[in-house]
Amino acid sequence: MTNSINEIIGAKAILAIGTNTTQAHPIIALQVKKAARNGAKLIVANPKEIDLCRHATLFLQHRPGTDVALLMGMIRVIVDQGLADTTFIKERCDNYDEFVASLSEFDLARVEQITSVPAALIKKAALMYAENSPASILYCMGITQHSHGTDNVFAISNLALVTGNIGKPSTGVNPLRGQNNVQGSCDMGALPNVYPGYQKVDDPKAMEKFETAWQKKLSPVPGLTHTAIFDKIYDGTVRSLYLVGENPVISDANSSHAVAALEKLPFLVVQDIFMTETAQMADVVLPAATFAEKDGTFTNTERRIQRVRQAIAPKGQARPDWQIVCDIAKRMKSQGFDYANPQEIMTEITSVTPSYAGITYDRLEQGGIQWPCPTKDHSGTPILHAAEKGLFATASGRAKLMPLSFRESAELPDDAYPLLLTTDRSLFHYHTGSMTRRVDGLNQLDSEEQLNINPKDAKRLGIADKEMVNISSRRGQVSAKARVSRICPPGIVSMTFHFAESPTNVLTSGALDPVAKIPETKVCAVRVGKQ
Amino acid sequence: MNNVNITIDGLAITARSGMTVLQAALANGLYIPNLCNHPDLAPAGLCRVCVVKVDNKKIAISCKLPVQDGMAISTEDPEVMQIRKSSVELLVAYHPLTCLTCEKDNDCELQRVAHYVGVTQEGMKRYRRSVRTIPKDTSNPFFDIDHSKCIMCGICIRTCDELQNINAIDYAQRGVSCIVATLGNKPIAQSRCESCGECVVRCPVGALAVKTAQAPMREVSSICTYCGVGCGLFLGVRGDRIVSVRGDRNNPVNKGSLCVKGRFGYDFVNHPDRLKTPWVKKDGKLVEASWDEALDLIADNFSKSKGDGFATLASARMTNEDNYLLQKFTRSVMETNTIDHCARL
Amino acid sequence: MTFTQLQEDARQEWNALRNDNNPQIMIGTATCGRSAGAMAVVKAFEQELEQKGITAHITEVGCIGPCYAEPLVNIAKPGKPTISYRNVTPSMVTEITDAYLVGEDPLAHYTLGTFGDGKIEGVSRVLDTPSFKPQERRVFRNCGVIDPTNINHYIANQGYEGLNKALTMTQEEVVDIMKRSGLRGRGGGGFPAGRKWEAGLKAKGTPKYVVCNADEGDPGAFMDRAVIEGDPHSVIEGMIIAGYTIGSQTGYIYVRAEYPLAIKRLEMAIAQAHEKGLLGKNILGTDFCFDINIFPGAGAFVCGESTALTLSIEGKRGMPRVAPRPRTTEIGLYDKPTLLNNVKTFASAPMIIVKGAEWFASVGTEKSTGTAIFALTGKVNNCGLIEVPMGITLRQIIYDIGGGVSDGGEFKAVQTGGPSGGCLPESLLDTPIDYDSLDEAGSIMGSGGMVVLDEKTCMVDVARYFLDFTEIESCGQCVPCRLGTKQLLEILKDICKGRGKEGDHELLYELSHSVHGGSVCGLGQTAANPVLTTLRYFKSEYDAHIYDKCCPAKVCKSLISYVILEDKCKGCTLCAKSCPVNAISGEKKQVHVIDQSLCVQCGVCMEKCPNKFSAVDCVSPRVKTEVS
After folding, report:
1. From the CA of C483, how many Å to the nearest CA of chain B?
2. Which residues contact B225 (CB under 8 A, 6 or more apart)?
3. Long-range contacts for C50-56 (Cβ within 8 Å, ≥24 apart)?
4. CA dihedral in degrees (C529, C532, C538, C543; nearest 10)?
């Protein structure tokens, strides 16, 4: 998030696109609902009529995968009506003319045709966002998990930049991140192309810095991404996989591919807290400690580094992950893995990660700190890009407006697979359910997979509410209970992926975004039939 | 904001203008008994227990009365004492006296207020006692609703409305039959309720109570393990088990609020399915093994696949320190940059 | 069309009816008349006229008040005063037709009296009777006189003249005249209407609303219904004037769904006013636009409270807002400035504009000007709706207008103000009727209920009866009202059952004061009035119940016994035969005995015992049953 969670309440307009906030981020949803109650204009853009719509001023029910058209259409209205923040654009953005030229493709008639949102409504939303300042944009996986997810994100940042809604309180481009420490994992360089603090592995200066710090020769070649790893396992290049706290058998798009790869893999180590579906395929399974059993830090979606504290001893012989890594490294006779506690690790992190340089455990005792925090006396950065000039992560320090054009999703419904499946989450479960499915009460509140299907589609297919149905795509088939409701419009169905009994990701498409390599779990074509 | 000076029972105190008399009193460490007031919520003025006399003339409820410079407040005026005592005695007359087995015993606002206004056994004998006989709503897996203990302060209703904007509950029916109910008075589990438990946390009596509540022996400040919001919480510990979770009101992210997963979804930590030893595959089957055996096997295999033959998938569930070490291990020991994690899922 | 034209047309129609050579038959068919059988009478007249080939106009009119005389039929023959026939049944129609429509015999023994100029031998003038003489018909001016479904009748009788005049005045001038009239809110609170209108005018915020409270919830009160059914346009005109005055374009009438005829009349009247350009866009050719919606209430008593009422219109649960709160004139319906008045307040406004503030204040007292309307019921000879000048005494109402206590009973108390009012004893009968005097005596004006109680009424039981009502109707949000009324009721029930105990008196008193001082809204604050006034004026009855287990009025079944007087019983066996529980034994011509252990105090034996014997007596406290 460029801005902070507690700023949402101050926004005069909020665009919540591709986020089912009340289900996936209930505590952020509290702020959104409160802002709407206090009079902020809330625009919800979502293919499904989600719970947040109850609080919305406007609801744009666009076809999945048409976010670029919707957002660029809105921007065109704003530019055409003279509502663009020209001062901001002039001072802080590049590429405006080229960008404006690319808007010609997005006249409202065409946008209406693409998105199936009435032109008048798009116009109303555009004016509402532009005329009520400060305005904040919230988005989530509904934006990113597409074969053109990067374009979607560019479109969002274009909208914020054109209206000058960046770098000021209660504005911003605010991705709501899914996992508790997904921000921190990225910050820490658990990515194939960057070291901690997003220092590029193919930047010789960065490499030199880490070679010095770690006293080891390092590879200048970026590694493989998540999906590429499975491809390379499948073709035999990767022979050992060290898999920590993940369950790709359930969570990966087109998960049958992941399973097939793992079956071929010579050596798999899984480190987890439960014997997950993936762990059952491993050669070695290592028992890890839970968050309640170890010390450390998490970094949340607003870049706030906060202390996690050990409350109880690890169960049985389970060990904290950092300790296991050290154990393996030491067993391999490697130097540099002698840490007494996570605090010592953090000291090393801060010495090599400029945005974390000011962090100490002592400081965190007083509460979390938002990075960038470059020095010990820096109080953290609630709002990114706040300076008058520069400070965008580009060579010029100015934001680049991105010309875009609309691309359809990789797999659209056709005669064989006439329905569009989009995935979603339940309030009561988390990801693959390895934790929440083991909490009796949560299981009671939401006990099985449901296929949301519109009454029109259900009627046509002769499907009754609560009837078990088969859902199949080109990649596989699962079964689930039908929930006939108007949450999904006709032609669209949705499922979560929390239930191993109905592994939804068997169905989803492995199509990737060319830049971020994110699979397109939000759009694939399926067929639904009676059992 | 301007300060104003008022007196409470002759004691001069300073308050910020815009405060209510009750807020001003509490902020100055002066207790005015109250039941339906909650600092997170707009004042409702329903229990009539915080009644005071203003300038020796007017009876007013302090939770809704804005402070004004020079105001003289009396909390021990005979008329005031009569009204609040009647209100409290009435509540007690219709409340089950099962304090010892009540989960809110010692943490109950009704007990506190009854004690303060001087409810006595003798005084209560004058009343016709009766207790509601509506069966408990036990449909929610995490908390029960006991209407017999409900004092109708409306804090749960206002929490669900003002803070959560869910509106799963409201008043239903009239007079003494008036209850807190879901739409159509269905069991709470069949309502719009999201089981966040915010109402349970705020219930001043035992009407809303966590099912398996156990007072923790100690509490540890930490961060929720579920989504990326990073809510601050306190893990309640008894022996080697997590027995409760409480939102951290001082954490700027959630200011004490928690969702259903954060508040109630901690049992997985104590789950019998937890991995307690390493497992190693032997003859195609996973069997329990010692750490030494597992680490030897790993070290042996990993040593043979350095470089392109190795890949690490890290986890967004782990701490920063865990992730840092894992990428350091991958890059410096395994000599490859192939480390990724589930950020994209 | 200009207003003068409207008025001319209307007068023409009205005068044509008046000066017609054929007789006019006016039948009161408001809800009260209908329940007494008026519709059957209408039908009977129609058939009779047709059969006999008589030309006469039948007009259905509203209620003129005297319920004891319903159904009322007024017959006006050209050149003669109108004769009012009382308690007309279909079987009397032929006789009346033959005698007076065809012939000239007024059938004096069927009449209530005459209205209008002239005299008919043997029939007294209604307005000269003691029952009507003290009355002053202002709000009821048109009720029973005009056809409420015909807007022309209303216009011909100065209707909409007030609106027409108001539209030529400034808003401030209208406020001024309302203030000078001294009119106080007729819903019971008595807040000066002019000041409220002024606050409505001065309130900032748009839109503004005008709301008419027609949620007449007090048991036994039906004056608002009578006004709406008998003269709906007076209410509508008052609301339009109010809308003009405060700058509102939208009005709501919150009317009980239990008043279907009133709703029908309002719907019709609103449609007619629209047709004549008196409602809707550009009223009477001015820039002023106003429209009225009808909102049927769902039947909660508390929705008569103004803030609960506005919430109810919004579709929310009708619960009074908690003070301190802004006045409804500032934050009311949909949190916008709202002028909310009672039916009778709005109905009073047009004549104040037409005839002036001084005319209005010419009757009544200094602080309570104008007239008051009461629903006089209970143990009184002439029950019904009455409109009297403020300041008249309770005694005048009960003995002159009401004709005294019925069935030769002895006056014990009068209960005013509905369930939230109080019971006043004989010693306070000279209390003048106005807001402040009633308040001082411990009762309230309220919506205008007035129940006369005789010596056969138990005052503890009366208090119990009213608490039974308020306890159920409490909205339940605040503790003193929800639980206080419940506890008061439980104690009163116990006292009536002989389970009263030492300390009950004090607890009743304490709780009543706490309920009064601690409740959120008027409903709660006045709920204990029946207890407080009966404790104040009839304490000895409580003592008798609590300490002697005696109900002096012999009402409380648990405290009475029926006994057969040995010296009077002739052994006729009637009592034994009619006893539903076979508690009476005795041979024919032998003295009978009631087995007290079986008796359920139904009183049938006393009823059945022939008057010439009067051998069954009711005693309290109970006779002691001998333990065998």
Report:
1. 6
2. A180, A290, A291, A292, A435, B317
3. C52/C97, C52/C102, C54/C97, C54/C101, C54/C102, C55/C22, C56/C22, C56/C23, C56/C24, C56/C25, C56/C101
4. 140
Domain assignment of residue C231, given as a range: 160-361
Is residue C430 domain-shared with residue C350, that is, in the same domain? no
Given this model, what pLDDT does residue C450 score? 92
- DSSP letter at A305 equals E
Distance CA A434, CA C7 (A): 83
Q: Looking at the complex, does the CB of residue B79 fall below 8 Å from at least one CB of chain C?
A: yes
- Asked whether the beta carbons of residue C520 and residue B171 sit closer than 8 angstroms, the reply is no
Query: Tokens representing C123?
Result: 């029939």
Q: State whether A185 and B343 contact (CB < 8 Å).
A: yes
Check CB contact of C322 with chain B, cutoff 8 Å: yes
C509 and C424 in one domain?
no
Contact B46 C520 (CB under 8 A): yes
The lowest-confidence range among B174-178, C72-76, C366-370, C624-628 is: C624-628
Q: Looking at residues C34-52, what average pLDDT do you find? A: 94
Please say if the pLDDT value at position B232 is more than 60: yes
Quick check: A274 and B337 CB within 8 A?
no
A429-460 residue pLDDT tens: 988 888 898 899 999 999 999 999 999 999 99
Which domains does chain A possess? Answer: 5-176 (3.40.228.10), 182-370 (3.40.50.740), 419-530 (2.40.40.20)
What are the beta bridge partners of residue C27? C60, C73
Query: Can you tell me whether residue C601 is helix, strand or coil?
Result: coil
Looking at the structure, do residues B7 and B108 belong to the same domain, yes or no? Answer: yes
Please report whether residue B7 resides in a domain. yes
Judged by a CB distance cut-off of 8 A, whether residue C482 touches chain B is yes
With H, G, I as helix, E, B as strand and everything else as coil, classify residue A81: coil
The helix (run of H) or strand (run of E) holding residue C304 is none
Chain A residues 143-202 with CB within 8 Å of chain B: 144-145, 176-193, 195-196, 201
Asked if C450 and C472 sit in the same domain, the reply is no
Interchain pair A283, B268: CB under 8 A: no
Residue A389: what pLDDT? 47
Q: Encode C200-227: b = buried (16+ Cβ within 10 Å), e = exposed.
A: bbebeeeebbbbbbbbbbbebbbbbbbb
pLDDT tens per residue, range A332-361: 999 999 999 999 999 999 999 999 999 999
Q: Do B326 and A325 touch (CB under 8 A)?
A: yes
The 10s digit of each residue's pLDDT in A208-264 is 999 999 999 999 999 999 889 999 999 999 999 999 988 888 777 777 888 999 999
Q: Give the pLDDT band of residue A388 (cuts 50, 70, 90).
A: low
Residues of C in contact with B59 (CB under 8 A): 517-518
Owning domain of residue B253 = 214-274
Same domain, B69 and B7: yes
Confidence of residue B24 (pLDDT cuts 50, 70, 90): very high
